[in-house]
Design brief:
About 50% of the residues lie in helices and about 15% in strands. It has about 450 residues and is an alpha/beta fold. A 7-stranded mixed beta sheet has the order 1-13-12-11-2-9-10, sandwiched between helices. It has a 6-stranded antiparallel beta sheet with strand order 3-8-7-6-5-4.
């Protein structure tokens, strides 16, 4: 529904002005624009290290001095047993070359970069590299309702017909009148006409009655649309209050359609569930992930949506600060919480969750508070994020294993312990082996590009 704005208040870029005109000053331009923000997020993500990468760095920090020590001791031992300086130096250099931790250095960042690229290609914008490591730990997902599990835009949900007219005829009358309006409810009718290819009719004497509804004349017949108050204004008896109450309990905004002072229909307009929401919730339930709806909407509306898509736990009628407390409580229960939302009131919760996910249709502040932005507004992206995270961690562990395995395997050969059975290497062969090791890690990391996603 529209939000009233007065002089001095801020408006979000991309807002729609429904009535009158507005003068505003653009405060965020240049480096603060959306495209600049995306570039900054990509750079930040590239420049952050995942914890597992820090582990590899720590291991390398011990590994390198040990290798230098082993090479030095080998050099001294060879001189002490009477080998020439050239042979001792050859062993020293071979040990250093064969144990070069290049593959260790590539193991984690390469897998992270490939996975970040895969995420970006599939509409998942990640702010920090550590998200790719942590997402696979998710065991609790908290969803906001409006604009996240639902589209956040009004659509025609129910039509109760009290005449012999076809439903399309009634909607053609209503839509033709509403097409001249600027209210969000009007857009719901216009969208319906366009989607169902219903021709609009010529409207005369159009009038918008603020707070009540709209009216006009079609084929010399007066058509009135509005809430129940418009009936009183035109002295029309309302004999359908029970139907109105029923639709209202289901979370609908009510539009009466009156033709020549006779109620011909009641139309329920509401925000509808995203087409992918139920499948996503079903998948999460199958994978034993706890799913919670957290919303500021009333209990009846929230539970209706939750029941339709399979969410068992609903927390409704909460303020932004209360949303934050819910997330804190879940984390205190040692749950790894992913929060998905879109509004300003979700921002504190998004920032507090282990991972905050914002849909791209959300507000600037929600996207700024989150760790992940879904640029395609597709909830399947959450499942894809967790799936990519699991595959990435598995790939990194494989890379680290082969890097360590190679170094441990080749060190004895480089030192010369296998010389008695005729196995020796020199620095040139060691350098080739090192390249092959790094090449193996690279090829393994690139396999992440072939992950199958929803």
């Amino acid at each position: 529904m529209p939000a009233n704005k007065t002089v001095g208040e801020k408006v979000i870029a991309g807002s729609i002005n429904y009535d009158g005109y507005i003068e505003y000053e653009a405060e965020r331009i240049g480096k603060e624009s959306t495209i600049s923000e995306i570039v900054r997020l990509v750079l930040d993500a590239t420049n952050t290290k995942a914890p597992i990468a820090k582990l590899a760095d720590k291991v390398s920090g011990y590994f390198v001095p040990v290798v230098i020590l082993v090479a030095t001791i080998s050099f001294i031992i060879y001189l002490l047993i009477g080998a020439s300086f050239a042979v001792a130096l050859n062993v020293f250099i071979t040990v250093l070359v064969v144990a070069c931790p290049c593959s260790l250095g590539l193991a984690t960042p390469l897998a992270i970069v490939v996975s970040e690229g895969l995420c970006a290609e599939n509409g998942i914008l990640i702010k920090k590299s550590e998200i790719l490591e942590n997402a696979q730990k998710t065991n609790t997902i908290v969803f906001d309702k409006t604009g996240t599990l639902t589209y956040g835009t009004l659509k025609i949900a129910n039509v109760i017909n009290y005449t012999n007219m076809e439903e399309k005829e009634i909607l053609a009358l209503a839509g033709s009148i509403e097409k001249k309006g600027t209210h969000p409810i009007s857009k719901a009718f216009v969208d319906y006409l366009e989607q169902n290819k219903i021709q609009t009719l010529e409207v005369e004497n159009y009038e918008e009655i603020s707070g009540y509804g709209v009216c006009g004349t079609i084929n010399k017949e007066q058509i009135i649309l509005g809430n129940s108050k418009i009936l009183s204004k035109y002295n029309i008896e309302n004999t359908h209050k029970q139907d109105e109450e029923k639709l209202a309990k289901e979370g609908n905004s009510i539009i009466y359609v009156v033709k020549n002072k006779e109620i011909v229909s009641i139309i329920g307009v509401s925000d509808i569930i995203r087409k992918d929401a139920k499948d996503v919730i079903d998948t999460l339930n199958e994978n034993k992930v706890e799913v919670i709806m957290l919303t500021g909407d009333n209990k009846e509306s929230a539970e209706k949506i939750a029941k339709e898509i399979g969410i068992q736990e609903v927390i409704s009628n909460v303020l932004p600060t209360q949303k934050l407390e819910v997330i804190k409580n879940l984390k205190e229960e040692n749950k790894f919480v992913l929060m998905c939302g879109d509004g300003i009131n979700d921002s504190p919760a998004l920032a507090t969750a282990n991972i905050g996910v914002s849909v791209n249709s959300g507000t600037d502040i929600a996207m700024d508070s989150s760790d992940v932005i879904l640029t395609r507004n597709d909830l399947n992206s959450i499942i894809n994020l967790i799936h990519i995270s699991k595959k990435t961690i598995r790939n990194i562990k494989q890379n680290l294993f082969w890097a360590f395995f190679y170094n441990v395997l080749m060190l004895p050969v480089a030192i010369g312990l296998l010389t008695p059975i005729g196995i020796t290497i020199n620095p040139m062969i060691a350098s080739v082996a090192m390249v092959i090791s790094s090449f193996t890690v690279i090829l393994n990391a690139l396999r992440l590009r072939n992950i199958k996603l929803n």
